[in-house]
Amino acid sequence: MADMERTFIAVKPDGVQRGLCGEIIKRFEHRGFKLIAAKFLQASEDHLKKHYLDLKDMPFYAGLCKYMSSGPILAMVWEGQNIVKLVRMMLGETDPAESKPGSIRGDLCINISRNIIHGSDTLASAKTEIELWFKPEEFVSYTQCSTPFLYE
Known about the structure:
nucleoside diphosphate kinase activity; phosphoprotein; 4-stranded antiparallel β-sheet; 8 helices; ATP-binding; alpha+beta; NDK-like_dom_sf; magnesium; Alpha-Beta Plaits
C-alpha cells in the first residue's frame, strides 16, 4: 500500500525493567500496526546523544542521554497508515500526569522522567531515527493476513 508510513518506537530502560515490552507491543498489534524491525540492545551514550540531538539545549539533555544508556531498550519500527499521528495519540503526553487514561503513559506511568516509551513526533524525525537505529537489511517485508480487514 503506497500510503503506509513508518515510525520509530523505543521502550525505554524503565519500561524494559518493569516488564512492559509485551504490553506495549500488544497495544500496537491490536491497533493493527505491523512490526517490521526490532532489536533489543543497550545503546551507548554517544548514540543517544545523536538520537536526542534536537534536545541538546535543554537542561535535561545530559541526564536523559545518560539514563537512556543505563539499561536495555527495545527499539522497533512499525508501519501503518497515519502511524506517526496515531502512535503519538496512543503514547499520551510526555508528562504522564497530563496523559489520558487509555493511553500508554496514562495507564502505565507516573513520572515524566520515567515515561517508559519514545515515539517519533513527525514523519521527518521518524525517518531520521529509523536510519540512526536500523540498517536496511534489518527490515522484514511481509503482508499481514489482517491487511484487508484494516484497510480499504
